[in-house]
Amino acid sequence: MVATRTGMTTNNITIHGDTPILVDYLAEGAANVVFSVWSKRAASTKDDDFGQPGTSTPDGVPRIDGRLRGKLLRLRKNLPFVARVIESHSHFEKEIKPLFPAGRLVEQLLCKVSPDFVKSLNDQLRRREADGLRSPRRRGAFLAEDELYATAITSMLWDDEHISCEFKPKWLTQSPSAPLGAKRCRTCALRAMRQIKDPVPPQSEDYCPLALVADDQEVLSSALKSILSGCKGAPLDLPNFVQKVRPFFHNNEIIKMLRDLQVQKDPDGIFESDPSSLDFMTAMTLRDCTMFLKIPNRDNAEAQIEARLGDLDLKTPDGNKAEYWKQTEQQLIDDGWYTATEKTTADAGGAICLLSKGD
């Protein structure tokens, strides 16, 4: 392993322009782009070319590092509010990983990447954009070509034996800054404000995050129905599917642990906290992570649902983010989005929040 200036190790994994792999666009968020990794010969030979670094296949082709098998490649965008990979990975290893039991997080391997490799991926993004295949919200943002690192992450994609699903739990408790008597939690208040300002069709994930930690089984079922309807490979019998998954959510500690950590790391809120403090940045990271699910698609008592948290990149106050967080919170308070007293005749969807139901 090779140590970096932050003390992290790259595991000696280096990817450059002529590494014999196919890297295909898979998905992207505001800060990162995720690519699938394949052997160039996988479709034409049983030997998929992954193995011990420094060795070759019987016909002399250099093997791809076996640690990349079953992994996805994640690279950061060149945006001012996105932390460098080495900084974010260091925060993950030192601050996030110790908070959770083994097997609860999407694993990360730090890899070194060459400029020509990153440029080739940007070329791929530009082609997708030119063909109209990138979301309008993501256009114009490309990978940082001066970035030296990427992360290889656990693949939670669906396969022949599993259904896959991902969603953002968001804020699992009310914002510490919210006014007394609020009728919306922080996530529902922000959603309502955005819905009025920039109306979009309802999404399958329109549920109240507080429902995920509710004791009421019917409340939990309603939230799971919204989440699971977006699963890849989900069965047509959605009610039965919800009943299958609900006990896992009710009994699994990971969601409640995430809720408790959000409170522990930020008990005071944006107006009373230092946005550059480690605890506050960790809280904001935990409020924007993603839960990935792999659910067995057959009724097998021994088959286990796998749930991992990912997208745990460090949320820093850089790039005017701290000011954005404060302005957003102040607007939610001043314009009545928390209390459902906003001045609009349009339906902002307040009834979806558990707080509006008196819970």
- Helix content range: 25-40%
Structural class: alpha+beta
Distance between the termini: 51 Å
Q: Helix segment count?
A: 8
Strand order of the largest sheet: 1-7-8-6-3-2
Approximate strand percentage: 15-25%
Radius of gyration over alpha carbons? 22 Å
Low-confidence stretches: 1-10
Order of helices and strands: EEEEEEHEHEEHHHHHEEH
Q: Give the overall form.
A: globular
Mean pLDDT: 87
- Number of beta-strand segments: 11
Main pleated-sheet profile: 6 strands, mixed
Describe this structure in words.
With 359 residues, the chain is α+β, with helices and mostly antiparallel strands. It has helices spanning 85-96, 115-130, 186-197, 217-228, 238-251, 254-265, 278-286, 321-334, and strands at residues 14-15, 21-28, 32-39, 50-51, 64-65, 71-76, 108-113, 149-154, 162-167, 290-296, 306-310. The strands form 3 sheets. It has a 6-stranded mixed beta sheet with strand order 1-7-8-6-3-2, with helices on both faces. The longest helix is centred in the middle third of the chain and has 16 residues, at 115-130. It is globular, with a radius of gyration of 22 Å. Mean pLDDT is 87; it is low at 1-10.
